[in-house]
Amino acid sequence: MRTTVKQMTQNLLTKITLIALCGWVMVACNQKEESTPPPVSNLFFEAPQVSDVDLTMASLEIQVKGFTEGEVSDFGFVWSETSNPVVGTNNQKSFGGLARTDTYRHTITDLKSNTQYFMRGYFTKADEVVYSDEVNFTTVQLTFDKVTPNSGGIGDEITLVGQNFSTDLTNIQVSIGEISSTITSVSTTRDSIKVKIPEGLTAWESAKVQVTIGNDVLEKDAALLVTGWIRKNDFGGGANGLAAGFTINGKGYVVGGVATTGRVFQKGTWEYDPTTDQWTQKKDHPDGISFHEGFSMNGKGYVAWGSEDLWQYDPTNDTWIEKLKSSSSAKRFYAFSFLMGGNFITGGGLKLNDAGGGGNDMWLYNPNNDTWKKLQDAPFEFWHAASFTIGIDAYVTGGSINNHVNNPSKALWQYQANTDTWVQKADFAGTPRSQSVAFSDEFNRKGYVGLGYDGNTVHKDMWQYDSITNSWTQLSGSLSEEIANPTVLKINGRIFLVGGTALGQDSFGSNDYSKFSSSVWEFILPSNQ
Asked: Which end of the chain has fewer beta carbons closer than 10 Å to its terminal beta carbon, N or C?
């Protein structure tokens, strides 16, 4: 059968069409294979972990697995005080784009104590945020229980007692009476903080103590009493007691005394400037003295041993001159004295030429004409009594009776200089004692008596005497150091106590001279308003 030209042409066209159709199908098939999406992601988080939970911080950890490069634009942690924290709303730590499969860690700070937090990891890819499982943790509880001691003077160190304080001093703030306080240490057990009472607080008033650690602020309702005791620079002459003192032109002077070297009387003369809180050594006393009474008049200083030994110090020339002795022929120690009407009055004490017997004779020295005058005897025999003046009257209290350190007196006697008479007033309300200190606030007509020794105890308290009501009141709080026999300096209305003994025993009877003090304390008088 013969094939026509027309049939051959049709067959050729059919073959060409089939070939073209197969090529199109192959292209189409190849194109379909090239547009297939990438495999499903294997990226996932292990369960997050929390460790080292503390007062204001916690450490977070999460492990990333199945990492594919470029898959994640951001990842990190998110946390809050409510469940299911979310990105952009709650606290967040971002690590940026994921770089590798690894374990990632972060420490959260500035948390609140005793607070529950919720945390989870997250990663962002495309427009989707994927979160890990959630974990929760509770921070440690901070407590502030008490202040000990609950009273102290400016510069004194006190301890705040509680639990779970931070050991990072930069993370702690303590304020007393809204004034920032210096933190000296935190205990390794984190149950106490030592701080110093700051300057600027009003003495004899209560101040609240506030502790701030991170976001936590705790305030103690039991207020701290800020006493009127302020520690100053130590005495320039070292540990010393039983020295004489006087004040000239805004400067205080301490002369002689007994030091740690033994019973040798010291010769040193030291000048104290309260404006700079500095000591300067001046010309030594010619003999060395102790148990002396000091006073100043007309720009000169004086030291007297009872009514017998008398020396004058001139600060301008820095010289000592021996002055006229009295005719009592009875050197003594532990006498009491006071200035009255421009005259120095002294008496009592133990007489050296009377087998150590007590004395009640009284003597007046007039510095203007360098003369002594015998006064009426006192109605008591006290040694180591304390005295202060208010107006035209002087007051004497305490001291030992009948030459016995264990037999102190609580009597208070008023000396009326215009009539040279003695009147007994209200007994001292504290524990009877000797070797105490006394001074006065004449503007408010108040006297102050405190510290001292009663034969068993060295006291640290202070009592206020109201001369108008003839009554005693104990001041709250106490000196942080046990001392007796300090030298009292009254400089422009400010009271300073220098040195003293810690044993309270008279130095003739004690062999322990290591107990003398070099401390200097300023006592702030109450406002009495």
From this structure: N
